[in-house]
Amino acid sequence: MGCHRRGSPGPACAGRPDSAITSLDLESAGARSMRKPTSATSTLTALFAAVMMTAAPLALIATPRTAQAAAPTFEAPGSLVIMSTTTGAEVEIDGKPMGKLPFDDSVLVQPGVHKIRVALRGWTEYIDTFVVKPGEEVELEIDLIPFAGIVKINTREPGATVKVDGKVEGVTPFDKDVPVGKKTILVTRPGFYDETIELTIQAGEEYIRDLALRKLPGGGADGDAFYETWWFWTIVGVVGAGTATAIAVTSGGTQQAPPNASFTLQIP
What is the percent of the chain where pLDDT is above 90? Predict the structure, then answer.
């Protein structure tokens, strides 16, 4: 059935013909059936894209973190301040000399555990450990205790024996720590007069004595007593053979001539 224009005879066109409606409905249904799979695919695609967008930043963030963990870390050094009244004491940290006290400034020290040693002759030694944290300042108060003086004795002829209060402590050149108090020091050498030194030793003080030992009468040029010289025993040997004549003996070198002195030997 046709559809008439306005003003023309016949029923007005109230709508689409049935055939047209049916055709359009089928087309709409077909279109809807075709869009359903398209809508599902779009949803999956959107979800995949969202997952990728979320994972990509995480991967970018994770990579620098791994690299940062492998990189070495830097720790700021700490500092050490030593307060002491023991002037001149030598300081060592981990076996490395750092100078003598007092220090004008603090000492930079790497974080960790360290060993410190402070020493001065005639004073007790200080050994300890300390811990420094990054950027931390550590203060140590170190005062050594004096216990001995330093005695140095030199003689023109080295090898003289040195006794302190009757006990042999060494030979010249002599350099040793001696406990505090009044001390009697005896210096002896064959062929020379003994030398006695009286000292009142104070802790941390230094005592230096340069001695010129005096020879005994008849002592040899090298400081030996007359009975230790070659010519004395030569005379004795000759006299023992029945001849009282002193002779000079030369054996591969120049020997010391006997002094101008007379000796009387009585042989039974």
Answer: 51
The pLDDT, as a whole number, for residue 64 is: 53
User: CA–CA separation, 123 vs 148, rounded Å?
Assistant: 7
CATH architecture type of domain 148-211? Sandwich (2.60)
Classify domain 78-141 at the CATH class level: mainly beta
- Starting at the edge strand found earlier in the chain, the sheet holding 206-211 runs 174-179, 148-155, 206-211
Task: Count the Cβ atoms, other than its own, within 10 Å of residue 117.
Answer: 17
The predicted-structure confidence for 37-82, as pLDDT tens digits, reads as follows 455 556 666 666 665 666 555 555 555 555 555 566 778 999 999 9
Residue limits of CATH 2.60.40.1120 in the chain? 148-211
3-class SS letters over 210-231:
EECCCECCCCCCCCCCHHHCHH
More confident of the two residues 179 and 46 = 179
| Pairing label, strands 137-141, 148-155 | unpaired
Q: Residue 64: helix, strand or coil by DSSP?
A: helix
- Long-range pairs for 63-68 at CB < 8 Å and ≥24 separation? none
Cβ proximity of 158 and 141 under 8 Å: no
